[in-house]
Q: What sequence folds into this?
C-alpha cells in the first residue's frame, strides 16, 4: 500500500518538474479525494502531496474552491472512462432502437461501476461548491456522462421511440435511477451487500428501468383515453 502512495507522489513530482504543476496538483487532489472524499481536497494537502509549497499552488488556484472544481472535473472525466468501457464491450446490434437502449443500459452500468470502484471520487464529482454548476441550466456543459445520456435520449426521440414531450422525463428518470442506485450502494442501506448481491441489484434495477422505456413507447397523448 505504501509503495502505491510513493509511486503516486513520484508521478506528481515528475509532472511538476516537467512544468505542469497545475495538472500535478489536480492529480494529487484526485488521489486525496479517492481516499477521503471531497473534504480531503485542500490546497495545502495537494501541495504537500506534490512536494511544493502552498504558495506555489496558489499561483494556479485562487483557493480551495478552484482546486475542488478542477478535481470534480477530473472525477467526471474518469467516470466517462468507466462508462465508455461498458460501451466498448457491447456486441453489435442491428436494430437501431435495440442498439440505443443497449447503450443506455451500458452507460448506466458504467456509472454505477465507477461509484462502486471509486466511491471517494464519485462523492467528489457531485459535491457542492461555491463554483458548482447548476444542473438545471441547459446552457451549461455538465461533462461527458451527461452528454452521453443526452445523446442517447436524442437518438431515441429521432427514432420515434420516445415522443418529444418525454425527453426531460426520460433524461431525469435515467439519471436519477443510476445516481440513486449508486448512492444506495455506497452510502445507503445497500452498502453492506457483497459483490454478487450488488451485481444482482444493479442488473435487476437497470433491466426493470429499461423495461419502463418500452412501456412508455407511445406518446402520452396517445395513451390517454
A:
Amino acid at each position: 500500500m505504501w509503495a502505491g502512495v510513493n509511486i503516486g507522489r513520484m508521478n506528481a513530482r515528475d509532472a511538476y518538474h516537467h512544468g505542469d504543476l497545475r495538472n500535478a496538483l489536480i492529480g494529487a487532489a484526485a488521489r486525496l479525494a479517492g481516499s477521503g472524499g471531497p473534504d480531503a481536497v485542500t490546497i495545502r494537502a495537494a501541495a504537500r502531496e506534490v512536494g511544493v509549497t502552498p504558495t506555489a499552488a496558489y499561483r494556479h488556484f485562487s483557493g480551495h474552491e478552484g482546486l475542488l472544481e478542477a478535481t470534480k472535473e477530473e472525477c467526471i472525466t474518469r467516470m466517462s472512462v468507466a462508462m465508455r468501457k461498458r460501451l466498448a464491450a457491447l456486441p453489435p446490434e442491428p436494430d437501431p432502437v435495440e442498439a440505443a437502449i443497449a447503450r443506455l443500459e451500458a452507460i448506466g452500468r458504467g456509472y454505477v461501476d465507477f461509484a462502486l470502484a471509486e466511491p471517494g471520487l464519485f462523492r467528489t464529482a457531485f459535491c457542492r461548491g461555491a463554483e458548482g454548476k447548476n444542473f438545471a441550466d441547459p446552457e451549461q456543459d455538465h461533462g461527458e456522462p451527461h452528454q452521453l445520456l443526452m445523446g442517447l435520449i436524442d437518438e431515441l426521440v429521432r427514432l420515434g421511440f420516445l415522443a418529444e414531450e418525454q425527453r426531460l422525463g426520460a433524461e431525469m428518470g435515467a439519471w436519477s435511477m443510476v445516481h440513486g442506485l449508486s448512492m444506495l450502494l455506497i452510502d445507503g442501506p445497500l452498502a453492506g451487500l457483497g459483490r454478487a448481491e450488488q451485481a444482482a441489484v444493479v442488473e435487476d434495477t437497470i433491466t426493470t428501468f429499461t423495461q419502463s422505456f418500452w412501456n412508455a413507447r407511445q406518446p402520452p397523448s396517445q395513451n390517454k383515453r
Remarks:
- The longest helix spans residues 64-88.
- Residues 2-61 form one domain.
